[in-house]
Amino acid sequence: MFTNEDLLVPVSVSQPCGEDVSFDACMDAIAAARRQDDPTLEQGEWATPLHSADWPLVANRCADLLRTRSKDLRLAVWLAEARAHTHRMRGLGDGFLLLAGLCERFWEHVHPLPEGGEHELRSGNLAWLLGRTASLVEGFAPDEDAEAGLQDARHCLAALQQLQAAVDARLGADGPAFGPARDAVLRAVADAEGQARPGAMERAGTGVAAEAGTATSRLDGANAGAGAGQPAMPRSREHALAQLRLVAEFFRRTEPHSPVAYLAEKAAGWGELPLHEWLRAVVKDPAQIAQLDELLGAAPQA
User: Fold this and answer.
1) Maximum CA pair distance of the chain?
2) In terms of Cα–Cα distance, which of 37, 84, 36 is closest to 59?
3) Domain tally for the chain?
4) For the chain (length 302 residues), average pLDDT per consecutive 10?
5) Using CA atoms, how far apart are residues 81 and 92, in angstroms rounded to an integer?
6) How far, in whole angstroms, is CA 111 from its chain's centroid?
7) Is residue 300 in a domain?
8) Helix %, strand %, coil % of the chain (to 5)
9) 3-class DSSP assignment, residue 275
10) pLDDT of residue 201
11) Which terminus of the chain has fewer CB atoms gathered within 10 Å of its CB, N or C?
């Protein structure tokens, strides 16, 4: 067994990120263990036994290499994938947190190293996992313990937000797109809310669970629930921000030209920022920022 903290201990004092194992045979072995044949594909008359991925083996080998030989983003995204297959939303969230930790603690030397000052390989590794997130999440069966499933989904969303903050701080506009992955996890949170708190979702009418459906079902639900009482108040900060993002998703699908989607998404993003970061996101004049910092007692930019 291993924890993220185990994997975030420097490989050595002289080489905190260890060696580059990109072309090592160990990577080929992990790639082979990850291979999984698609059972829906026709094999014709030359049918062969389907190969199934050994996800526990993948997880253990990736973790061992991360701990003892190399802090490598490709190993980390493979580990996140394996954890998702073995521990579902909780495992995927732990994978996001590990990646965030690698970016926060080892960015200068984490593998793959930048080429000519460009971080395309790093961004590509992260983009690969973000692109896989929707299919991973949608493949999870409902949790038998609905409340535990809700906590795991919230954990995954918070972890993804932490990873996005870490990547945005280092890559900015050159970083990978987080929107589709975030939308998939938000839908999972909405589904989990509906399973764990069905009474609250019924009272909400157009609440989180209703927003996760199609545009038609959302509109129908809003009409049907118009007389069902007041919508339920958010039960947590994370829930409130999730509702804002679902409002944004609703308007993107039903009224793509409306500014509401953009404003709701912006508001949700601002809700995750401390005051001094929010000021710098909306005020561009350094003199005005300095005055506001002094007036409000906000932490000045380092």
Assistant:
1) 77
2) 84
3) 1
4) 95 97 96 79 61 94 98 98 97 98 97 92 96 94 88 95 95 92 92 77 46 43 46 72 81 72 79 72 73 68 54
5) 7
6) 21
7) yes
8) 65, 0, 35
9) helix
10) 47
11) C
